[in-house]
Design brief:
Mean pLDDT: 85
Radius of gyration: 18 Å
Structural class: mainly alpha
Number of strands: 0
Shape: elongated
Strand content: under 5%
Length: 138
Amino acid sequence: MDFKKLQLIFYALVGGQLLFAGVVFFMLQQQQEFADIPYFSILVPAAVLSGAFLGYYLNNQLRVSAAEQQTEEDQLLHYRRRVILRLALTEGGNIIALVGALLTDNTTFFLFFALGMAIFFYFRPSLVEMANDYPPLK
């Protein structure tokens, strides 16, 4: 898998989240009755922040073994695993924020979604990061 395919995965994940956010926002505008679920006020921030922190932590744990990769293909596969892991954990928190907004009719959860999307873009694949983390092969 080359780097452009990894970027395509990133933008597909972005598109899915934004599409789901649009659907949730549209449904909230329809003034339908939703259940009052009070624990979402704790669950949503915890999910967004823990997904981001866990993605960051696990990415750093995997970064340690970056120098052990023997071929360019191994390096790219290792980096791809790191990126997909951190993006998936962040996306999970974002989806929980959107579901929380949908179920509770609380648009404040879109602020947590926005925070999660900012973190998601921070975690996007980068050639500079890859070059810094993986030493040139001899």
